[in-house]
Write a structure and sequence with these properties.
Length: 177
């Protein structure tokens, strides 16, 4: 959230978002460009983390499947965090508000698993919505396509919401002019 808080909110605050929207590119390209740019920064860090773990293979036997599953889980979690941060950044002009709202939402999505009841249907829904529930299975080396689909749908949802929010801002600006 602290990295993504300025992605779009600073553009709004400094009034450069209007210039960006007047460029001959779509809102989708703007959001995806910013998303891929921030992801590139985080994936370099994940690559360094993977290289550090792979350096242990010189002197020890590692479970490469478990390492790959864990890295996939971290990459998907990071991608979901970035998508959420970009959406929250698109909602406000203040980067601090974007960061706090991103932290709050991601904390809710992480601890919602604690709200589940023992054997109720709502407990299953809360468990499914929890980000940590899906990450834990990947960190344990259990690749489940439902976990990957959960993260991909989460990312897609927040990217589409960001695109729609920017498009709504563009239409609001046209009606004012």
């Amino acid at each position: 959230p602290l990295i993504t808080m300025r992605v779009l909110s600073e553009e709004k605050r400094s009034r450069t978002l209007t210039l960006l929207m007047s460029a001959p590119i779509s809102m989708t390209e703007i959001v995806l460009g910013k998303y891929i740019g921030v992801l590139g920064f985080f994936f370099v860090q994940l690559l360094l983390l993977a290289l550090m773990a792979l350096s242990l293979t010189v002197g020890a036997d590692l479970d490469l499947g478990k390492l790959g599953s864990g890295l996939l889980g971290l990459a998907l979690l990071t991608s979901a965090f970035v998508a959420t941060g970009i959406y929250m950044s698109s909602l406000t002009e203040q980067p601090a508000i974007a960061a706090v709202s991103s932290f709050g939402f991601l904390l809710l999505m992480s601890i919602i698993n604690l709200a589940r009841s023992a054997e109720t249907a709502a407990g299953g829904v809360f468990s499914y919505l929890s980000m940590t529930q899906h990450l834990n299975s990947l960190l344990n080396g259990l690749f489940n396509s439902a976990d990957v689909i959960y993260y991909l749908l989460f990312i897609l949802t927040f990217l589409v919401l960001s695109i729609q929010r920017l498009d709504a801002n563009r239409l609001d600006r046209k009606s004012v002019v």
